[in-house]
Amino acid sequence: SDLVLGVFGFFLLSGYNEVLRRHMHWEKSPDTHNDLVSGAMLRNGFEQFFSYIHFCDNSKLDEHDKFSKIRPFISMLNSRFLLHTLHQQFHSTNESLVPYLGRHGCKQFIRGKPIRFGFKICVGTLRLGYAVWISPYQGKIDDLQNTE
What we know:
Layout: H1 2-14, H2 35-40, H3 43-52, H4 71-83, E1 91-99, E2 108-109, E3 117-126, E4 131-136, H5 143-146
């Protein structure tokens, strides 16, 4: 329970305090060390948490869905967003780019943007920015696959 709260806090903090690799928060270097992170959890416990976390059964993955490993998590988020959404007349749809420098078939490159590499996510929001739904972009989809 404390580890889960620590990991959640780590994600919130990592949006404001960016480093190249997540283990750098525990280094002794003054430009990367973070007392909040290193005081809340040990690096090995944090890494162990990530090695065991799964959102679906790997034997039942949809081969056409490039996000099938986290699709149950995305579906759960969307259902929670809708459950707590305020009813408003006007909604907005936009694209957002989540920074990602690793390897993945859905990673996008957009020249001339502050965030050039990452995952493109379509987001439906309310007037004040509350997310109603999210849908990660998987690239061009062949129409013949969708007619089955």
